[in-house]
Amino acid sequence: MSMGRIYMDNAATSFPKPPAVWEAVNRYAAEIGASAGRGAYREAIESAHVLQECRLRLQKLFNGERPEHFIFTLNCSDALNIAIKGLVLYQLRKGIRPHCICTQIDHNSVLRPYRAMEELGWITHTCVPIDRKTGLVDPDEIRKAITPQTRVIAVTHASNVTGTLQPLRKLAAVAREHGIPLVVDAAQSAGHVPIDVQADGIDFLAMPGHKGLLGPLGTGVLYVRPGMEKIMLPLREGGTGSVSEQPVQPEFMPDFLESGSHNAVGIAGLSEGVKWLLDRGIQSLVSHDRELIATFIEGISVVEIPGLRYFGPQGVANRVGVFSVQIDGFTPQQLASLLEERYGILTRPGIHCAPLVHEAIGTLPAGGTTRFSFGPFLSAADVNYATDCLADIVIAHREGRLAAV
Q1: Is 139:218 a contact under the CB 8 Å cutoff?
Q2: Residue 404 pLDDT > 60, yes or no?
Q3: pTM reported for the whole predicted model
């Protein structure tokens, strides 16, 4: 019955990548090889050009003010740490113990830095609840959590568990009303939905290079709204290839937040991933994603078999192509194994590094869910096949052909 191996774990990392991504990686490794800013010869200059071209493409995709305000990071977790801890350290240096806000929908990339800093006595924090059915954050809940000491609001744009897409502009408006920097985790939205950092009111946009932006693993990006670098400190200091005679970190961007040699070979691939998105247009990708979402929901709804459910918004609105499912009688791990071994479908079981989401939707005691997550190289036929397989598992279990856990 298997159609071969069908990759449905794009929320972890996108696969496959556009061919131009690996061509750029191979070309850099074979023909350039130099470190940007660490030489005056042609290859070092070309390396700097690769980095600058990627920044320009990111600026165009996200409507940033300046290309140098898109800094390169290890991944989205790194970008979030740079933004959140950079803001907190600046406040601590001023003698202020800041209050920070997060939400139940957030990933451990936000929750764990908050917890670590609170244990060190650096911050206090409030975790705002979500709607248990939809996963949506009420902007008024953010507003109610604000105190005179609040200095950071962190929100996840799209959930890696429920697929919920937050009303970002409404949340940003609350932050702007109170003059509080807004840090947006775009791990599941960058490259999937339109993001305009200026129109959306975003101060910091953290994103992985290896998910929706279609670049290699080990790449990430942090957008910093011009002026925000004045109210943060760098997490790392070191060589930048600029003003080397000075004993302190440069104050200009991107060097202020970028120390050491870049993952230029990865950035070369990332640049081609962003170009692929620009060439196709984000709206065409949104249309494709919505087609896959509608196909999955229709496939689940038509079946109407007791014991099979998905979480998050029960429709196409307010979501991206991430679906967490449960089938009665199967643990998330068993269901994922069955999907791979019997049907060739690759999914991710478990808590997905987002325990508070699972707590809110009631799936934490069961060990989480089994997650399907879509990308631009999947088709509606692939998604139809996946929902047919889920139905087949439920029917086989009900008829006694698959043993319960």
Answers
A1: no
A2: no
A3: 0.95
CA atoms within 13 Å, Cβ hemisphere of 132: 6
Q: How far apart are CA 260 and CA 241, in angstroms?
A: 8
Confidence band of 395 (pLDDT split at 50, 70, 90): confident
SS3 95: coil
Residue that the structure tokens 């740490």 belong to: 81
> Nearest to residue 54, comparing CAs of 195, 220, 190?
220
DSSP letter, residue 77: H
Q: Does domain 19-280 have CATH number 3.40.640.10?
A: yes
Q: Could you give the C-alpha distances from 2 to 49, 148, 382, 389, 395, in angstroms and in order?
A: 45, 58, 11, 9, 17
Q: Where are the beta strands (DSSP E) in 150-271?
A: 150-156, 182-185, 204-208, 220-224
| pLDDT tens for each residue of 31-61 | 997 888 788 898 899 999 999 999 999 999 9
pLDDT at 246: 86
Q: Tell me how far CA of residue 255 lies from CA of 224, 234, 251, 258, 261, in angstroms.
A: 13, 10, 7, 5, 11
**How far apart are alpha carbons 85 and 77 in whole angstroms?**
12
Which of 3.40.50.970, 3.90.1150.10, 3.50.50.60, 3.40.50.140 is the CATH number of 6-16+281-398?
Answer: 3.90.1150.10
Q: Cα(149)–Cα(169) distance, rounded to whole angstroms?
A: 23
Residue range(s) of every CATH 3.40.640.10 domain in the chain: 19-280
Q: How many CB atoms sit inside 10 A of residue 283's CB?
A: 10
Q: Give 72's DSSP letter.
A: E
Question: Could you give the residue range(s) of every CATH 3.90.1150.10 domain in the chain?
Answer: 6-16+281-398
- Alpha-carbon distance of 234 to 212, in angstroms, equals 27
Given this model, what pLDDT does residue 2 score? Answer: 43
